[in-house]
Amino acid sequence: MAEQLTGLADDRSLLGRTSTAERVSDILRSRIADGYFPPGTRLSEDGIGGALGVSRNTLREAFRLLTHERLLVHELNRGVFVRVLTVEDVEDIYRTRSLVECAVVRGLGEPPYALDALSAAVTEGRQAAAGNDWKAVGTANIHFHRELVALAGSERTDELMRSVFAELRLAFHIVDDPHALHEPYLARNQELLQSLQGGDRRGAERLLETYLTDSLERVVEVYRRRVGEDSAP
User: How many CB atoms lie within 10 A of CB 110?
Assistant: First the structure.
């Protein structure tokens, strides 16, 4: 925890002069998504509050916000922990993804579409793979789907899916072979991008439906095995 707190202190400048629970929660959400605080980690009020230079009340409100987003869990008489997802949680995350992401593609309207950010996420993934950084490939994949959702032009949908994608990262952090998990989606992201560049939103929706179904099966298979191993005596 000492190492994490030293790095977290670097984020103090992000708070500016008006430290708020929302800003603290933004910092902690990003750190959790990046695996800085892995699932199951107990978060120290004194340590994190000291590192960020915020009051206990502000930090507790930030914890409350992230608990509402299902990223943290409060255990009576034990403290606040980064949530460890169940297989059922993972399945529900993908159910939500399918409902929202496919609806976004279906509702795009007539081409051309604003795909620069989506294309940049594909490039980001390729560059990370070239550097053999498979954790970064997973991050690029999240960026790809976040930008896909952003095509809807809806702040409410963006906010909803921000929490969903942050939860998804909790599952990714449990996986012991990110290379095997993420590599297949480099080509599939490119294929989906090309369909949208060609104005074929119906074809893109079909690709996305299959993509998410396959991804769910893959993640659940690995996640079930890994969580089972961790819970074995």
Answer: 7
